[in-house]
């Protein structure tokens, strides 16, 4: 589980319990700082030992080979670099930097197949598309900034009047167009970017169980008040 520094710690713990209940080992790893990496490396070393034990009567010493597979821009290449102790995999804060599949080597006991991000378009509805947009799993050309900005303000941050919130948000930053009107597109882009950078608080978009997804004003029970942004931030 990458980018745990951006997620609600309580929700991350829920996901860890859920994965555990499914018999699926999970490890939150901050690829920027390396926090959590040690536990994952020890797990992989143990897995390698288990694999080598299967070759009874044979002298074999080869690395564990793994494939990194998942959505775009979730940190697969950054995780690969951390796991291998190298900077061989290209990485950055936008989707699509990994072109083609390629093997990466660094540590003696491990080899990784880094792959481009993939999305199953058959599973994407309007709600999922917006979640992919705010996490930058899809390119900016694939969504409308203003539409996603309004959704983020209302459904994730819990503001009942997203227009008023975005207007105040844009005004506080000086996003004015000709005539003195607030530029809602610029305000939306800035709000989305602040979400991506964690400036709006540590927020998780989903819980393990669909009935407890974070959404709307009903989210008061699941979104801590201190994780929301105030209607107008006087310090900016």
UniProtKB/TrEMBL annotation:
Gene3D superfamilies: 1.10.1580.10, P-loop containing nucleotide triphosphate hydrolases
SUPFAM superfamilies xrefs: P-loop containing nucleoside triphosphate hydrolases
Single GO term (MF): GTPase activity
Signal peptide: none
Keywords of the record: GTP-binding, Nucleotide-binding
Superkingdom, natural source: Bacteria
InterPro entries per record: GTP-bd, GTP-bd_ortho_bundle_sf, P-loop_NTPase
Pfam families: MMR_HSR1
GO process annotations (BP): translation
Domain G: 66-121
Residue segments, region Disordered: 216-236
TM region(s), chain numbering: none
Identification of the protein by name: 50S ribosome-binding GTPase
């Amino acid at each position: 589980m990458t980018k745990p520094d951006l997620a609600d710690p309580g929700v991350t713990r829920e996901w860890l319990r859920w994965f555990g209940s499914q018999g699926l080992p999970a490890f939150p790893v901050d690829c920027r700082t390396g926090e959590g990496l040690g536990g994952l490396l020890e797990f992989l070393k143990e897995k390698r030992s288990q694999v080598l034990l299967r070759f009874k009567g044979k002298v074999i010493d080869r690395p564990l080979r793994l494939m990194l597979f998942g959505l775009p821009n979730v940190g697969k290449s950054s995780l690969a670099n951390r796991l291998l102790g190298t900077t061989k995999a290209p990485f950055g804060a936008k989707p699509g930097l990994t072109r083609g599949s390629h093997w990466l080597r660094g540590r003696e006991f491990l080899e990784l197949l880094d792959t481009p991000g993939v999305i199953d378009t058959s599973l994407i509805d309007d709600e999922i598309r917006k979640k992919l947009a705010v996490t930058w799993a899809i390119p900016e050309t694939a969504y409308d900034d203003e539409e996603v900005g309004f959704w983020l303000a209302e459904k994730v941050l819990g503001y009942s009047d997203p227009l008023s919130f975005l207007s105040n948000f844009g005004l506080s930053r000086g996003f004015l167009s000709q005539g003195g009107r607030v530029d809602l597109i610029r305000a939306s882009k800035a709000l989305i970017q602040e979400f991506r950078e964690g400036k709006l608080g540590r927020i998780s978009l989903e819980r393990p169980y669909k009935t407890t997804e974070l959404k709307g004003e009903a989210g008061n029970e699941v979104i801590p008040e201190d994780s929301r942004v105030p209607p107008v931030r006087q310090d900016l």
